[in-house]
Amino acid sequence: MDTHEKMRLLARAAQYDLCGAGCGTHASRVRDDVGRWLYPAVLPDGKRVTLLKVLLSNACENDCAYCANRGSRDGARNEFRADELASLFDSLVRSGIAQGLFLSSAVCRRWC
């Protein structure tokens, strides 16, 4: 799976992680042309920034009944290498698309 396909899969899976009060609602998120989910957020000083919300992995070892990414659930699984995600995020920052990262992950001990 190429980087853009991973981004589509792992950004879509990240929509189930809840943002705090400083992030926009699902209605205010924006999906760009390559499938990245971008969320508005407000910093403590009132400044607004755009966050890229993505999972490092959706290949979870746990099977929590409430979780959309639980191990027993059918669906495509993948993960970013740390350097791969860092390079991708750096390119988004340099191009002015995102100013922050909301990163979460499934529980995956084999690479931790």
Q: How much strand content do the residues show?
A: 15-25%
Give the SSE order as H and E letters.
HEEEHE
Rg, rounded, reads 14 Å
What coarse outline follows from CA principal-axis ratios? Answer: globular
Amino-to-carboxy terminus distance: 21 Å
Structural class: alpha+beta
What strand order characterises the main sheet?
1-2-3-4
Query: Strand tally, please?
Result: 4
Query: What kind of sheet is the major sheet?
Result: 4 strands, mixed
Mean pLDDT: 79
* pLDDT < 50 stretches: 21-27
**Could you estimate the helical fraction of the residues in percent?**
10-25%
How many domains in all? 1
The number of helices is 2
Briefly, what is this?
The protein is α+β, with helices and mostly antiparallel strands. The protein is 22% helix and 19% strand.
Provide structural commentary.
The protein has one domain (3-111). It has two helices and four strands, in the order αβββαβ. The chain has helices spanning 3-14, 82-94, and strands spanning 30-31, 37-42, 48-55, 100-104. The chain has a four-stranded mixed β-sheet with strand order 1-2-3-4. It is globular, with a radius of gyration of 14 Å. The model is unreliable at 21-27 (pLDDT under 50).
